[in-house]
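Hi L.,

As promised, GntR family transcriptional regulator:
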Amino acid sequence: MAEDSKPVYLRLREIIAASILDGDYGDGDLLPSVRAFAAAQGANPLTVAKAYQSFQDDGLVVVKRGVGMFVADGATRRLREAERERFLDTVWPPVAAQMRRLGLRIEDMDLAQA
């Protein structure tokens, strides 16, 4: 799906997921409030709440009433597994096909630049 056609809450979810996978937020860490994240992203707070709710529905975020939303225990591992599966199922096949068309091999890639 083209990035521009993806619903905003899914794009926000990807930003949050990347922050967790990059280690900005670890298991048990407090996530930014809905309003703070909305302000930082220039998004509607209701849209941010929908992105957070999707994480909560998946068991990746837990809410402590009156305190905030926290990354659930084991969320980083589960999120990494899900993202690896998504990458291998949807992202990698067209990349591999393009590499074959161009005669590129993994060994040709300068992965140090990534």
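DSSP finds four helices and two strands in the chain.

Thanks again for sending the construct details.

K.
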